[in-house]
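Hey,
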Amino acid sequence: MDKQKGIETLFRPNSIAVIGASATKGKLGNSVVRNLLDSGYDGRIYPVNPKGGEILGLQVFRSVGDIPGDVDIAVIVIPARFVLEVVEECGEKGVEALVVITAGFKEVGHEGQEAERKMVEIAKQYDMIVQGPNCLGIINTSEPYNASFAAGTPEKGIIAFASQSGALMTGILDYSLMEKIGFSKFVSLGNKALLDESDFLKAFGNDPDSHFILLYIENVTDGKQFMEVAKEVVKKKPVFVVKSGVSEAGARAASSHTGSLAGSDTAYTVAFKQCGVIRAESISELFDIANVYDDMGLPAGNRVAIITNAGGPGIITTDACEGMGLEVAQFSSDTIDYLKERLPPAAALYNPIDALGTAQPEDYTVCMEAALRDPNVDSLIVLLTPQAMTKEAETAQAVVDTHQKFPEKPIVTVFMGGNSMVYPRIVLNEAGIPVFDFPERAVNAIAELYHYTVLRDSLKDETPPKFDVDKDTVQKIIREVREDERRVLLGHEAHAIAEAYGIPVAKIELATSSEEAKQIAEELGYPVVLKIASPDIVHKSDVGGIEIGLQTPEEVEEAFLRIVENARDGRPKAIIYGVDVQEMAEAGKELIVGCSRDVQFGPLIMFGAGGVYVNFLEDVAFRLAPMTRTDAKALIDETKISTLLKGVRGEPPSDVKALEDTILRISQLVTDFSDIVELDINPVFAYEQNEGVSAVDVKITISG
């Protein structure tokens, strides 16, 4: 099945059947037919209803099989219990794509889930693609056609939008008509039975009518596929996403909403970052960004000029710029001289430009033209507050005229006020100038578009390194652990796996008696550390299950007996295999490297400050495996402790290269072995440059 070929048919059909078409106004089947006609679709429309007759001037066919010509798309709006039979009929007819608006599938429980599975099975048998079920439909303004039950059709534009929530789309459609935001494609994903966000993202990336991509998702069907597709698309077009289900309650709601399983929100944030997708925090932010891009495109850099007629808003805007990673531009001497000659002596000239409360439209024109001519300025924010002498509408027109004169640099406006700003905002909207009520939203929109350009340019076609490792040893240990009906590896087993992948570890052996513990200690050399060996005791210090710095055979013997007794008292039901005897590693900077396996995206690697306070300091960063050398460097640099690793106050720098190698080896390990669901190395001691690292305590849990 060629999904992209099917989506191309979905985007540009020559004929559409509406199965479940109705003559009754207000019913879904009537709304879909009406929207197709009202949108100006010039292909063939075939209403299908067992009653026959005529709907909105179109002949009605009793079944899809009765239609005399070919059918590219079938839009299905009938009760769920009849859908499977109709899907089979569509397959026999040779329909290429289905848009299943009907609800009542996996979102309602097991029975619906089974029906959805059968629907996909039938569709694949006939090589048909399926959008939905449980969706709003699809709109393509370029054809144009509207095969949805939305109350209207958006204006033609360059923004492609796909949403997992159909109801949200109807609200956004209404909002877009008011704000004059145009769309190229408007796609409701629904339950994503066959076509998902990755399929449409790839199609949007190849679509010549779409230049900016927005997604609202509650989950990702295949995390790795999404990342692969997104990395290619963002090289050509910006991709912005809102991911809901951030809170625990939200994740539960997302799951029940679409029958999906939401993954870790941290994994989503990391995935988006690694593949160049910008995550918006809200729907309003998403469309603020889209509005600015739609009208102004991308800024060439992060240098912003600010023009205002009031000091306070100018200061707020300046603070917002610096807080969001934008630079308040430094004007050239020519710009300063130009402004000095034309503005009142009391005006502030050095950015933000404060043209004073008496500023007239011509003063704004002087300021805007000066700023836009300046080579140190990449974009412009124009602020206006209603003062006694302010001419709001005329100033809005001055902005429009200036943009027409200098179209290459983005202009974003903030017209603060109520009734006095209604008509000026209309003037700006009609001319395609983004206008906001308050500065922060304007600054954020420019900042996020700039951040996209930085992220896009930072993406590299880099291959994760492959180290020479001992997979056979790892397979053997995991097999033996499974045979022992365990999921948690003992310390010596986890260390052996790390060692098999070239990770420097402190030597460790299992002792089943105090005599054996003394013998191992002699072989390893003093001092040594003793740890209880039990899959049921993860946090050993909580039960007195660890003793360090043991210097003599007598201390080892006493510690062995004490540790076993403490473990039995603290965890009476715990299975105890003995005590691990480990060489005591030389202390270094305490770090942690770990991994958990996300349900959608796979292995999520963590790095940060380690030791007993790791959960309190929370100085950690994340990346998804497999990782490149660039990923490993960025992972370390995101943490506060990275500053210490570079050397401070006369301390020598740590062996960051060895640390990168350790992270990359762990990335390779958890990529090679999907059995490993959790891995923690805490602490990892980092030594001085060229002295390496040492993994002191390794914990591994495998899947059941």
